[in-house]
């Protein structure tokens, strides 16, 4: 706990004294600490690919100057590192945009059946490369929610991309959509979108922290897969903006299921 102490001299009639008040500023300290951690994390995440890029540029200007094979290989790695920086900047911008809109409730009519189909089509290159089968389990009736279509598309894309990336080659990813007459937490009718994979699952201790910025279960694997560590943080903010909720069910060896529940 951190307190700010305020002192003042007061006089009432012929009586006088000193008034001391204590203000609890713990929340401000915590917010400031979070901001400092975030800046440190962003700097670290940007510095790693930048250092690699500078190293390869130096090598290409010096020892590998006339080595055509090395040049080709190094340029490939450099393109990868530059791509990583690009994805990080894109995710940081998305995060800051969603945060700035958190109080504005989106209200366009978004057809979730169409959105699921479109996300699956857009990710077909990734699923084919990993030989992952992606299945859509949709109701016959269209499910339409008041939402920001681009943001819900981003939520589904991030979750499906993770399921394909971490679900393991040759697995199955199922995107299901259904309607609940009443969600107990939202206290009303809701649409339920879930992304289920047949991957290795996640240990229980990691689950509450998965939506923190830059939190990764296995940093090496996330970087290898081109992850920025911001995907689920973006998902959480978008779901909050829609007054919905995110549920994560996972167990080692049993796959993972990420469910987004949105008020209808
Ligand atoms: P990243 O860019 O690292 O994928 P995310 O915020 O999207 O960042 O996810 C955070 C971490 O959660 C990942 O690094 C990964 O360890 C874990 N994770 C996310 N989705 C899955 C999944 N479907 N199966 C297993 N682990 C997952």
UniProtKB/TrEMBL annotation:
Keywords: ATP-binding, Cell membrane, Kinase, Membrane, Nucleotide-binding, Phosphoprotein, Transferase, Two-component regulatory system. The keyword Cell membrane applies. GO terms for molecular function: ATP binding; phosphoprotein phosphatase activity; phosphorelay sensor kinase activity. One of its GO terms (cellular component) is plasma membrane. Residues 41-264 form the Histidine kinase domain. The keyword Nucleotide-binding applies. One of its GO terms (biological process) is cellular response to phosphate starvation. This is histidine kinase. It is found in: Cell membrane. It catalyses: ATP + protein L-histidine = ADP + protein N-phospho-L-histidine. Its EC number is 2.7.13.3. Its main location: membrane.
